Each structure stands twice: as C-alpha cells, then as structure tokens.
Fold:
Amino acid sequence: MTAPDPAFADWMGGIQARMESALSRLLPPAQIAPARLHEAMRYATLEGGKRVRPLLTFAAGELVRARPERLEAAAAAVELIHAYSLVHDDLPCMDDDVLRRGKPTVHVEYDEATALLAGDALQSLAFQLLAEPVLADDARLQLEMVKLLAVAAGSRGMAGGQQIDLEAVGQPLTVPELEAMHIHKTGALIRAAVLLGAACGGAPDAALRARLDQYAKTVGLAFQVVDDLLDHEASTATLGKTAGKDSRQGKPTYVSAMGIARARELAQELGHNALRAVEPLGPGARRLRELADFIVLRKF
Ligand code: IPE
Ligand code: IPE
Ligand code: MG
Ligand code: MG
Ligand code: MG
Structure:
C-alpha cells in the first residue's frame, strides 16, 4: 500500500468542501425555532469529521457516472445518520464521552435532552433527503435506497451493533463475535454509503453490486479495526476524541482480542481484500482503491 497521492488529496478536499456547504444548506438554519435544537444539529454535523462515508458514496458514484447532485443528497443522508450515531454514542448512558471532533460533545455543549433530540432529528432529516425529488427519477429504486439506509441504521445494522457493544462491556469476546459487533455498529453504514453511491447511477447489475458489496463489507470492518487501534495508539489531540477509552471502559476491541501487531496486520489484510474485490472494475474504481488505502493507513 502507498501513501495517498496529491491528486487523491485534492479530490478528497473537494468532496469534503462540497459536503460542508451541502450539509450547511440542508440543515435547518440556527435562527429558526426551535433554535436550540437546530443549533445542536448543526454543531453535531458541521466543521469536523473526515467525511469518509460521503467520500465512499462519491467514489462508488463516480464508478457508475452518477450525477453529482444525486450523490450529494445520498452522501448527506448517510453523513446525517453518522452524525446522529456519534451524538448518541457519546451520551453518558453510552460511551460517556466529553470530546468529539476536537470540541465538547453535544450533551456537554448543550444538554442531554437536546443531544437526544438532535440525534433523533438528524436521523429524520436523513430520510427526508433520500425522499427528495433529486433522487426520484426511478421511484422503485428510490424506495430501495430508503430501505437500504433504514436497514443499515436500524436494529439489524448500526443501532443493533451499538446494543451488542453495550452488552459486551467487560466481556472478552471471541474474534467472530467481535467481527459481528463491528460489522453492525460501523460496517453497516459504510456499506450503505457505497451501495447508495452506486444506486445513484441506476440499479447496478448483480455482478457489480456483489463486488461493491464485498469491497464495502471489507472496508467497513477495516475501518472499525483501525478505530480500535487508534483508540489505543493515537493521542487525544490527534483524534479529537478521548484516546484510550476502550480499555478504561472494558470494551472488547481487536486490540484487546489479538494485540496491536495482529490487529494492524488484519487491517492491512482487509485493505488488500477490498482492493482485490474492485480490481476487475478498472480505472473507474480508482477512488474506491485510494479510499481503501486511506481507511487502513489513516492516523486519525
Ligand atoms: C467514528 O467515525 C465512529 C466510528 C464509527 C468508528 P469516524 O472516524 O468516521 O468519525 P468522523 O466522522 O471522522 O469524526
Ligand atoms: C462507534 O464506535 C460506532 C457508532 C455507531 C457511532 P466507537 O464508540 O468506537 O466510536 P468512537 O471511538 O467513540 O468514535
Ligand atoms: Mg461506542
Ligand atoms: Mg464511542
Ligand atoms: Mg472507538
């Protein structure tokens, strides 16, 4: 694997900037009532985050030459679900975190009830965006997209993975159990980001969908393995969130299950597998390949 080249950095910066302005436009203005809730939604979503899920949506969409304005709407929907998941993940009843994206968490900056409602409202707004006319050329496909995100966010996806995570505190999970937890709490939304990007170009054929699905599942798991590694190895300043919390809170992670060296190797293996899945897709899959490397090699 190689370090990202400058052209990739430019592409990434362009999508990140585009998403910042799209999200700012799509979120309710802070001045509109109920102002405190709208402020909290904006605080949770804007000015921060790597935007990995939108990057994956655009990368998959570029492969199928999807219209950028469609990709923007789908990517915003996924990022809003992600932002909501972080707000709730940080609540005292969950990971009880005070720092996120280098700022006080939403319940610290506002209050717990506002954080709860901001998460709820971000989730609703995500589905509102997927139902917008920009995605509506093919009503059946649009319904499938709504369902895809709903399943990814729900009890068989992210929320379910979060429940497994809470129940696992203090328990030494086996590697297959850990894998199941990570695939749900983090992998499901990453998979949705990729498949929604592809769907923005029209229903993908079965072979392409299978390749993208394999890619997405593999990078989704790699993403959380690296998150576990960084919690252990990186600093709070670099991460913008409290480092070292997993072991202090007795969370089973890939680091606790197999040690740093093996977890690092596994992340690299998963990265290779992701590259293999999209290899036959040719130059159009370039950004997907670059993102697989980025996800494994990232430092924050
Ligand atoms: C953190 O996600 C939570 C996990 C699902 C591991 P990210 O690392 O994508 O967080 P941001 O969006 O860049 O802050
Ligand atoms: C969070 O996993 C997964 C979500 C669904 C938000 P973590 O609890 O490990 O995420 P961080 O480390 O707080 O960002
Ligand atoms: Mg958590
Ligand atoms: Mg957490
Ligand atoms: Mg973590």
Q: What stands out?
A: The chain has a mean pLDDT of 97. Residues 85-86, 89, 95, 97, 158, 162, 185-186, 227, 231, 241 surround IPE (ligand 2) (CB under 6 Å). The chain has 14 helices and two strands.
